[in-house]
Design brief:
heterodimer; A: mainly alpha; 2 domains; B: alpha/beta; Rossmann fold; 28% helix
Chain lengths: 280, 320
């Protein structure tokens, strides 16, 4: 049932996310040509400096670059918001009549939605990375360089940087993944909790609860690790006693907190789904 | 009033005359002398006239009752409950069912046993608790108190697999195609008859690759109804299926309900449009302010009172 739920959720997401992906692709193509013009020197230059309107076009290209990167950032934010809009619609609005009458358990429901959301988040991230690569390639080509060589050099630098501290790199990735999972479940838990305590204005209640929960979680994830690493003295003196600050320890603590909070919010989501409706 | 339909499974006439049998007094509601006369304790059984499921041909004839015959409520999960030996299990059994939304009672101490294989009308004015009752059976709401059993099981994953629910609102994402909806039902409901669904949609002229948002409201509702009725479920819950549609659509919906539901299954149909549904009802439950006011066999009450259900409804729920 989990696989079937995932498949249907994935398709439901695609109906909302594909237009955003198309927008990202369009921005990437625009950005590529914009970069060709903006970064063009020598053989890559699209328009001569002596031509009329060069300054105007240069200004437009600079603004365009800014707008394109802004558009890509907004697209990623929209994709993330749509993930939760999809969750809200299937669990709280009229679609919930269908969701909660399917012969599946609460755990399967919540789990499938998480998996589908995670896949779409990765797809969105990959789309952004490809868009960034396309725009970067425009800059390389405009400068007369070899794009393939430039990419190899770039990745080599990144790998060398990461290989300097493999443990830190691993913990960084683990911490980021744990934080992303925690972040997903805290928002879905907040949506379900907010919508379950009111009978009207459920959307408003859900949004309010998201802000409240996020504030609380940020408090927990910043205060406790700070106290743990820098000591309780920081509360009274405001001064940080610099112990041997260990980044790896800090990352491990953050990962642990994220895992615990993610498990808590998962339990909350399943419990609310079961209590409010008879799923199991 | 009688209507005749041909059952697609057997080709026999499914004449909608209600069976008569033992009729209990429903619920714990106070019984007036007039009510006790209207619902006699025993009525001689008549042979079944509508098509029978051959698999059930040798089973003892179901006693028709709407009241809780047993002294103690059936134990959840128990297949036989506390029913007398040889007596078929009620499709739906509630004992002291109560639902409150905060301080507001929606259902108060509802006790019923609804038999299998019948079309039961859940009738009442707006706000009487019909939708709340149906949602509890569908597993969308948890009761505040009491017990509710569907074929001996409490509402949950197992009952959702055997209950086909038609809500009073559109539940599909408007961006879905009809084929997506069919695929969803096929994937999650083992009793879904895809061939029958496609046949009914074809009769309606609904394109399977069409998007729901391109259809009219009436067509979307028909698509939803077709998918629900194409399941070979044990219990169909239809919440206001003919509200807000034109008379032609109403006829189609009622015809679909009578001809498409699985033989031996129970249909609970909630509405306040009594006149339209009365021809197809075997039994009825009058729900008022969250309590059972009256219930029984449709044919019996018509014979005893000389009134139609519609007239009786107007009398019972008179506003002045």
């Amino acid at each position: 049932m989990l696989v079937k739920l995932f498949r249907h959720d994935f398709r439901a997401h695609s109906r909302m996310q594909i237009p955003v992906l198309i927008a990202i692709a369009a921005a990437a193509v625009l950005g590529f040509f914009n970069m060709l013009f903006l970064a063009g020197t020598g053989s890559g230059q699209l328009i001569s400096e002596e031509s009329d309107g060069y300054v105007l076009m240069l200004g437009a290209a600079i603004s365009g670059t800014f707008l394109i990167f802004l558009a890509l950032g907004i697209a990623m934010a929209v994709m993330s918001v749509l993930i939760f809009v999809r969750f809200y619609r299937s669990m709280v609005t009229d679609e919930a009549y269908l969701t909660f009458t399917l012969p599946v358990t609460a755990g399967q429901l919540i789990g499938a939605k998480f998996l589908a959301s995670a896949v779409w988040f990765l797809i969105g991230s990959a789309a952004l990375a490809i868009a960034g690569g396309l725009i970067y390639s425009g800059a390389i080509l405009a400068g007369g360089g070899d794009f393939r060589e430039a990419m190899v050099d770039l990745w080599q630098e990144v790998f060398e940087l990461l290989a300097e501290n493999p443990l830190t790199t691993f913990l960084l990735i683990l911490c980021a993944v744990a934080a992303a999972v925690r972040w997903y479940f805290q928002i879905t838990g907040a949506i379900l909790f907010g919508a379950s305590v009111v009978r009207k204005n459920k959307a408003l209640a859900a949004v309010g609860m998201i802000f409240a929960v996020n504030f609380l979680v940020n408090l927990i994830t910043s205060i406790f690790p700070t106290l743990g690493i820098f000591g309780f003295g920081v509360l009274f003196t405001g001064m940080v006693e610099f112990y041997d600050f260990n980044l790896n320890t800090w990352l491990l603590v953050q990962t642990g907190i994220s895992v615990i909070l993610a498990a808590m919010f998962w339990w909350l989501s399943v419990r609310i789904a079961k209590k409010s409706v008879n799923i199991e | 009033m009688e209507s005749t339909f041909l059952h697609p499974e057997t080709g026999e006439e499914a004449e909608k005359t209600a069976l008569t049998g033992e009729t209990g007094i429903a619920g714990e509601a106070e019984e007036t002398p007039e009510e006790s006369e209207a619902l006699p304790a025993e009525v001689p059984a008549e042979p079944e006239e509508k098509a029978e499921d051959p698999a059930e041909a040798s089973a003892p004839e179901a006693e028709i009752t709407f009241g809780p015959e047993t002294a103690a409520p059936a134990q959840p999960g128990s297949q036989s409950g506390s029913q007398p030996i040889g007596r078929p299990m009620a499709a739906v059994a509630c004992y002291g069912l109560t639902k409150r939304y905060g301080p507001t009672p929606a259902l108060t101490d509802v006790s019923l046993e609804l038999p299998a294989g019948k079309i039961i009308g859940l009738l009442g004015p707006n706000g009487s608790g019909k939708t709340t009752f149906i949602k509890i059976l569908a597993g969308l709401l948890q009761p505040t108190g009491g017990t509710v059993l569907i074929h001996g099981e409490e509402p949950g994953v197992r009952t959702k697999a055997m209950v086909s629910y038609l809500p009073e609102r559109m539940v599909f994402d408007p961006g879905m195609r009809v084929s997506d909806c069919i695929g969803l039902f096929r994937d999650f409901y083992a009793d879904f008859d895809e061939r029958r669904a496609r046949e009914m949609l074809s009769i309606l002229g609904v394109p399977v690759d069409g998007k729901l948002k391109t259809f009219s409201k009436g067509t979307r509702e028909k698509v939803q109804l077709v998918l629900v009725m194409a399941r070979r479920a044990k219990l169909y819950l239809l919440d206001e299926p003919i509200g807000g549609v034109d008379p032609a659509a109403r006829d189609f919906i009622l015809h679909t309900i009578v001809t498409a539901y699985e033989p031996g299954a129970t249909v609970i149909l909630s509405t306040h449009l009594i006149r339209d549904v009365e021809p197809i009802l075997d039994g009825f439950v009058f729900l008022g302010s969250g309590s059972v006011i009256m219930s029984g066999e449709a044919e019996t009450i018509r014979a005893d009172t000389g009134k139609s259900l519609d007239e009786l409804f107007r009398e019972v729920f008179r506003c002045w």
